[in-house]
Request: fold
Amino acid sequence: MKLHLKIWRQKDTKASGKIVSYELNDVSPDMSFLEMLDVLNEQLVSKGEDPVAFDHDCREGICGMCSLMINGQAHGPEALTTTCQLHMRKFKDGDTIVIEPFRARAFPIVKDLAVDRSAFDRVVQAGGYVSVNTGNAEDANAIPIPKENADLAMDAAACIGCGACVAACPNAAAMLFVSAKLSQFALLPQGQPERERRALRMVDQMDKEGFGNCTNHYECMASCPKGIDVENIARMNREYGFAFVKARSKP
Amino acid sequence: MSDRLNSQIPSGDIRQKWEQHKFDLKLVNPANKRKFTILVVGTGLAGGSAAASLAELGYNVLSFCIQDSPRRAHSIAAQGGINAAKNYPNDGDSVWRLFYDTVKGGDYRSREANVYRLAQESANIIDQCTAQGVPFAREYGGYLANRSFGGAQVSRTFYARGQTGQQLLLGAYSAMMKEVDRGKIKMFSRREMVELVVVDGKARGVVMRNLVTGELERYAGDAVLLCTGGYGNVYYLSTNAMASNCSAAWRAHKLGAFFANPCFTQIHPTCIPVSGHYQSKLTLMSESLRNDGRVWVPKKAGDTRAPEDIPQDERDYYLERKYPSFGNLVPRDVASRNAKQACDDGRGVGKSKLAVYLDFKDAIQRDGRETIEAKYGNLFEMYNRITDEDPYVSPMRIYPAVHYTMGGLWVDYNLMSTIPGLFVLGEANFSDHGANRLGASALMQGLADGYFVIPYTLGGYLASSKLGKVAVENEAFSAAVGRAQDRIDKFFAAKGSKTVDHFHKELGRIMWDYVGMARNEEGLKTALVEIPKLREAFWSDLRVSGEANNFNPELEKAGRVADFLELGELMAKDALERRESCGGHFREESQTEENEAKRDDTNFSHVSAWEFKSVGQYELHKEALKFENVKLTQRSYK
Amino acid sequence: MASYFSSSIGRKHILAFTGLALCGFLVTHLAANLLIPFNPQAFNTYSYKLITNPLIYVAEVGLVGLFLVHVALAFWLNFENRAARPQRYVSKKNTGRGTTPSSATMVITGLVTLVFLVLHVMNIKFGAHYTVTYDGVEMRDLHRLVLEYFSSLPNVIWYVVAHVALALHTCHGFQSAFQSLGFNHPRYTACVKALGKLYAVAIAGGFAFIAIWAYGRGGV
Reply:
């Protein structure tokens, strides 16, 4: 099939970017979206032009490195799908496809379609862990954990940190990402000793990074390739409130 | 046997070796640890766990990763699980049994002492990860669930849905982030190691290319840890991530680190087949599918009928036919080789004819669609997403794909390479899996190395070495930067007509055809002619566009493929040299009457460690393998 | 405490809390107004008792406070949300699985409600002062004022439009407030959402009904 591509090109973080049009012929419906871009890049390189920069790595939907706003939707039109798992059979011959980077103040553009998501790392640094040094652990079966809680924690932990929630959110909020991490630990006994500190610090860091606020549209959940639920955001809202009160009432 | 290779294996009973060794290793005074800087390259399970554990001890750690975040290393893609000799199910597992199974599974080409230590530490890993909040699967009683994996006779595999690698990696990542917050780890992402710096014979630094700015950055330290994964991408198509590469290891190899058993690669039998020339990677489907799926091809060569139209008596369920007792559950290498054979006989299916069927029809009839959906729903969905075919209705098509490399930089018992101060952890080293890795053992090894081995052995090295200060202004650094810069200049200077991927695909074809699932002398010799030719073409006809001082994925790929073009040749050399079949290395000249791998323990019970002399020129050193605790037998799955 | 009021979540809590409190106010307001079509005397007497109670000033200040905080926070958050994406998308499409017409229009429906309220207070609270005497007690005849106001078609249309906006605003706002305060559970969230829709329709419908009824009656 033949496609008209409109791709955001931007030399580096500081440069201003623009949409550039490309025509691509002989696209196979069995190609993945990124393989389609590979083909485009092969052509650009052959012509001596600068290939389109985009982030990708595992290409099996788990590393969270790929991104892209495809026709205005994070990871494209398919629910529960990362860009690398999106296939061209979802498009039609002659389609025009607009490809942009994930946009948010907290995600500066590195080049073209690649963005810097290190804000997520800094949020995790603020408390997305259990402070247990290697060697401290007791036997893994010493604390039984109800299966329901373990399953809910796993649901939250399935987040791949791709940032689609931020990209899709009308407010560029990172609540789904942050709440997924907070929830995982809030649901497990191992997370209890640092529970309040974690909630306060991670939310504080999230705010500092310049993400927007949640207005409960739930576009994040709808765009999340792993289907992380907004129940986690409600849990974070709870956690934060309790943490604030508890932190003030401590001796 | 080479005197250059001292494995440093402690003496004494195998059960006591590691305990005794830990006691014998010199310690670094707690107050002195902060005076040491450790460079950790890679943030997968091995690198992440090592960086975190060393920082916790008080060392200053500089950690580097190629992705935009340390949370994305390819360990994340491991699906199945992690083995540990916990014996929670009370089914007869023990450290000894895990040790024994791993040595046997590796077809007796690994070091007993290393494997025993791995089995010992396996239980600690589960404890540590659980304490980190890794949400392992649990039973209703709240205790950890186990499953049997890859044909093991005991249930010793811990798992977190089909995302065990992800959860373990995020555990190590979170431990790292904790130390970044404490200021003990400095994290550098989007960096690729382009040179190792050796000063006075010791590894003392690295040169990193900042992938965003293109700058060649210098970092000095007291030791370097390479945790950079395997080299499966030498085949172009593999289940590895796009950025997985051998370059860091290859830089070290060229400066004196021996490369061990490079020809030992693992081919995974259940991957989604290639669909076209544009294909960029292969997707693995969990091995668990073989528990219920039946593998078959048409009996007649060139049969183009749809699978539903082929009657039962015209189908060849070849694994069940040839291996009546193991059937579809034969080990990975056996399943892979048989699939290749069926396709070589012209009985492959699908458009490409390079696939076999994995059929769930009988299982669905027997257990009902719901049961199958509960077990494999997510895998069926993934298959459907990629191929647009419904495996509930028509059989899956599968084909083997390169998945893991058992070979890697040679290390001693302390995980130190032949360059003092250069340690190699995880898939990047060769140490624990012999000629074939068992399912759910890769995660175990990466984490054992990082959490429980290196914190001791690195201390031993630092405490017993005289390490002066080395600054990044040192001329060794300038020389290394010069080498890196020269290479980059050369990529742009070629100004040829073909892209990096063109050469990579061509290399992949040669490797897959001649150094793939089944190898023979003639093919390997062909590869040894074709690879150098391709390398020459690469340097004269390569075209790299873009700029050196900007984010430039084409330039990155060029660097990696240049190294693969050298490594591929060494793999062929090693495969040619090893005139026996063992594990994943199948030499057609060395097989039993039943077409099974035939080892030659008299002549090849050794590790082949290759020393780099010049491009294409290597010297072979052999480390003899002694088996004092396990009895060598020929594998049989009849 | 300052950190709570400046944090994203703290402010969401307050926005949700003030929103729900205002929802509560609307219930009492509608309950009283529903007396209008049925019993003018009861309506005027109720109003008289309400406005002659000295505590009314405290309540009014409280109500105005809730309202101002709600509006101010909404503006503040909205301003930040816009700043969080300085470069807009060239092309942006919702998934169809998240944003609803009600959630997408919160800012505009909020603004309409704000304008409506200012006019409403001017027209009614500070409107014409008619009096009526029941059982020897002279009191304000709000009933007459209301009927007079709704005898004008433009007034009725504006009133109904404003209440459609209010319905949209509370439809998202009601369930959203529960989420913001941390109440979201598979067991009751569907219920909260349904209740929110019911609330929006009932409240806005109730008020609009009175306006239309009054117009239909054709003045005092």
